Amino acid sequence: MSENNAIEILKSLVSFDTTSYRSNLELITFIESYLKSHNIKSTLVYDSSCKKANLYAKIGSNKNDGIMLSGHTDVVPTTNQDWADDPFHLIQKDDKLYGRGTADMKSFLALILSRVPKFISANLSKTIHLAFSYDEEVGCIGVHRLIDLINNNHIKPAFCIVGEPTSMEVVIGHKGKCSYQVDVSGLACHSGQSPLGVNAINYASKLIEYIAEINKEKSIKGPFDYDYEIPYTTLQTGVISGGITVNIVPDFCKFEFEIRHLSKDNPKELINRIKNYAKENILPDMHKVSFKTGVHFREKVSYPGLSINRHSELVKYIKKLLNTEKHKKVIFGTEGGLFQEKLKIPTVVCGPGSIDQAHKANEYISLDQIEKGGKFLDVLIASLRKS
User: Fold this and answer.
1) How confident is the model at residue 343 (pLDDT cuts 50, 70, 90)?
2) Quick one: 17 and 117 in the same domain?
3) Strands 234-242, 252-261: pairing kind
4) Cα separation of 83 and 300, whole Å?
5) In whole angstroms, what is the distance from residue 132 CA to residue 101 CA?
6) pTM above 0.85, yes or no
7) Alpha-carbon gap, residue 168 to 105, rounded angstroms
8) Which of these, 83, 251, 67, 74, lies nearest to 160 by C-alpha position?
9) How many helices (H) and strands (E) does the chain have?
10) CB 163 within 8 A of CB 69
11) DSSP letter at 165?
12) What total number of domains does the chain contain?
C-alpha cells in the first residue's frame, strides 16, 4: 500500500467529530497547521458564531488560471446507527477503512493534503486552490461565504473538481434541491364539536396529497434526462408532525417537503403552483370558520443543480487524466452547482469512495479507492508541471 501518509492523515481527520451540528474548528486548525508546516498560508472564513470555518489556500504559480480542489469537512450524524466500532476512530479491516466520513468525504481531503509536498516541488504551471467548507451536509450553507471570498480575490481558479464519492468516475451533473417547511395553523376545539374547529392535519394532508400529484405528473410528463437513475424532477414529503391528543381538533401541523429538480425544470414555478393551490383550494375553506387560520411556507434549503457539457474541455481533460471515456450524472447534490453558478467556473465531481457507503453505519472506503484517488492526483500534478 503506497498511500500510508494519506491514511495517517485520514486517521486524524476522522478523529474530529465534525457532525454538522458541531464545530469543525479543531479539524480546520489541524489542516491550517499542516499547511503552515509546508509554508502555505490559509485563509479562514468563519460563520456568524465563529464556531465553524471554511479554509482557503493557494499553492503554486499564483496565476489566474488555476484548479480548485474542493471538499466539505462536515459529516452526517451517527445517532441511532448501529456501528460495530467507534465511528470517529479509523479502523482497517481487510481492504477497507471504516469510520464516519471515510467515503463522504474526508478521504479526498486526506489525499489532497498528502500531495501537498508534491504540489510544492512540482513547479506547477497553474495555481492549485484548496477550498474546504463547512455545513455542506445541511444544505450547502457554509460554502456561500467561501464563494464570496474567492469572488473578491484577484486570483481565481479556472475550473473546479469537487471530490465527492463517485468511485473515481467523472460526474457531469446532479439535480438541484430546494426544501420547505409548511406551517398549517388551524383552530382547536373539543373533538365532539369538530365541525366548529379547523383540523390543521386534515388540511396539511390535502396539500401533501397535491405535492404527491405533482410528483406523479412529473414522472409521466417530464421533462426527462435519461442520464439520471430517476430521469425526472421529484417531489416528496419527508417529515410531518401535529396535534396534541385524539380528542382535540389539532390547531397546528407542520411538514417538510423537498424538490429535486432537473436543470430543465424551474423549482420556483413548482413552488408557486403549490402555494397557489393552498391559496385557492385550502385557505377559503379554513377561513369559512376562522380568519386566524393559515398556511405559511418557509424555505429551508436551496442549491442549484450541476450541469456541464460532456464535450467541454474540462470533462475531456479529467477523462484523459483518468484514461476513461465514461461519465455519469448522480442522484445526490454537491457544492458544484454553486461554484458553477456563482463563480462562473466549469465544475466536475470526481472523488474516491462510493455514495453507497455514505451516511450509513459502518461507513467505509476501500483501499483500492484510496489508491485510485492518489493516482489521479499524481497524474494531475504531472500534467501541470512546467515543461
Assistant:
1) very high
2) yes
3) antiparallel
4) 30
5) 14
6) yes
7) 13
8) 67
9) 11, 16
10) yes
11) -
12) 2
